[in-house]
């Protein structure tokens, strides 16, 4: 919840990498049945959902839909504590009760996308659509 609230508004500059390190987290709650995992994730989702400033992803996503959700999670802020710096970025919190809901099958391309998102690499992707020949008649 803390990482979702911080979004990309806080970071640590790592000189060795000449890059910012953001508080991105993939957290997995592991435990037996009826130990409170769903209670916790539901409370976090409810708290984060009370504000319109934190974007929540659907719990079940595809590679394309997570990129669309992240694109739509655009933020623009003014940060007076950094010399009145303006920042634009995309921030998305994904809260799901079951890992199998988020990742129903292992797909290398989807996992690579999740890694790139975590690492905050800039992505340039365009939507494509397939038209059949009857649409040109």
Description:
There is one protein chain. β3 (74-79) and β4 (85-90) form a beta hairpin. The chain contains five helices and four strands; from the N terminus they run αββααββαα. The chain is of the alpha+beta class. The model has no long low-confidence stretch (mean pLDDT 80). The strands form two sheets. Strands 1-2 form a two-stranded antiparallel sheet. It has one domain.
* Helix and strand element order: HEEHHEEHH
Number of helices: 5
The helix-and-strand class reads alpha+beta
Rg for CA atoms: 18 Å
β-strand percent reads: 5-15%
The number of domains is 1
Shape: globular
Strand order of the largest sheet: 1-2
Q: Provide the helix percentage.
A: 25-40%
Q: Report how far the terminal alpha carbons are from each other.
A: 52 Å
Q: Show unreliable segments.
A: none
Rounded mean pLDDT score: 80
Tell me about the biggest sheet?
Answer: 2 strands, antiparallel
**Secondary structure: number of strands:** 4
Briefly characterize the structure.
Helix content is 31%, strand content 13%.
Topology:
Elements: H1 2-6, E1 12-14, E2 19-21, H2 37-49, H3 63-72, E3 74-79, E4 85-90, H4 99-102, H5 108-118
Antiparallel strand pairs: 1-2, 3-4
Task: Using brief descriptors, characterize the structure shown.
137 residues; 5 helices; two-stranded antiparallel ribbon; 4 strands; alpha+beta; globular
